[in-house]
Amino acid sequence: MLKHIRPWLWILAAILLGRLISMALYPLVDTTEPRYADIARLMAETGDWITPWFEPGVPFWGKPPLSFWTEAASIRLFGLSELAVRLPSWFATIIMVILTWRYTRELEGIRPARLSALVFSTMALTYMSSGAVMTDPFLALGTTLSLVSFGMVIAGRHRYWRWLFFGGLVIGLLAKGPLALVLIGIPVTLWLIPKGRWKTQLSPFPWLWGSVATVLLSVPWYIAAELKTPGFIDYFIVGEHFRRFLDPGWAGDLYGNAHLEPRGTIWIYWLWASFPWGVLAAGLLIMGLLQRTRRGLMASAIAEPSLQFVLLCALAPMLFFSLAGNVLWTYILPSLPFSALLTARGIQALEGSRALRRAVMPLALIVPVAILAYAVYTRFDSSRLKTEQAMVQRYDALSQPGDSALLYLESVPFSARYYSQEQARDISLQQLQTMRQKHQYTRYFIAVPHKEAQPLLAELPPGASIVFRNARYSLIMLKGETAPGEADARP
Predict the structure, then answer these.
(1) Which has the closest alpha carbon to 288: 204, 212, 230, 345?
(2) Is 384 within a domain?
(3) Buried-most residue among 45, 77, 138, 439 (CB within 10 A)?
(4) pLDDT tens-digit profile of 351-394?
(5) Domain that includes residue 308, residue range
(6) Where is the domain boundary, 325, 346, 378?
């Protein structure tokens, strides 16, 4: 049976398996991954499947729960580990690869379909997010499922695709909220406008029952979340979807900082996210525009309704976020399945180019090999990573009954919260002094930013010393003060 599997499928499987291996090798690095991983850990620990908790007692209103549901379920099944919390993103990406392959096969044929799956799976953002604790793969899964389903229906494939369109809406709404409706609605609406396509192309969809199913599967969680923690709707719908978009420096973010960038930066992000294929696609586009024969072929291709829809799907995230200054490069992910389809078509159009054919496999291996090499390297030396995994492990090895928790001066990094399972605490110098005066602990372990370590040591009693260092912090061990009369009682 294995003899009948095509070589390209072996290559694709090896690339995806390589990501599965690499994501198990390196720790969660601040800030995004351990923040979301800790939310999933709390969900798995508490069994609260309605409200994601930013920390005990503080609800997380920034995102709907779909990614946390899958990660918490994975923790319940496989235990708490980097692999367990990253695994759902990997499966979401595999589904997107299959959807990209299936849609390209419908429009372009078998060979471009294989190439599009290879291109999409090895784009920088696709490959990185496939092994990361993020919400974006689930948003992209929802938008890809809906848009591919719409494309399949207008190509004449009605059957289950007309229902899967609504399934994608549900996934998007539970992964990232109304933004999914916008990213799906932009290409669909723009494609339907010319020549009154909406009069003929919308009829195959079960709009009434599909809409009812979408509401019944997604809206109840929103209601339950608002009832359980009032204020969620105002923060998430109004704040995250309007204030954040309209105000690049929005100061209302409860869980992070606004990412202020010049408007239009999202187009540069597309080149990063689609690397190395986006650079190749841009080169092919420029070559086509400069050659009269190829300009004619490009014009003919764009005149195809199906290709117009794919192009709109690829451009939708950039068109929408061009108006926003508060952007991240991960916002590009919903574009990449369709960018891969267009890139595969462009490569296929130049099939006679021997140099281009030879370049495909080296290009496909750039990102996977680089990430796997990086993961192996950090497995043996994680000292330069912004993670507190080693700090927590060192504290666990040194601490004894009667010692303090792992104390971070002023604030606890997300990775320390995750790896200590919320046992690490933040502390001020005043609180440390009060603890010592009350003789609360036998020894104190204080993680201090490197630049503050020596000044703090100068203020502490003799005997305080640095017992560990990582990329950001020095771990100071300090013996507690002897209680009054205790020294006299000793023989």
Answers:
(1) 345
(2) no
(3) 138
(4) 667 777 788 899 999 999 999 999 998 888 888 899 999 999 99
(5) 2-378
(6) 378
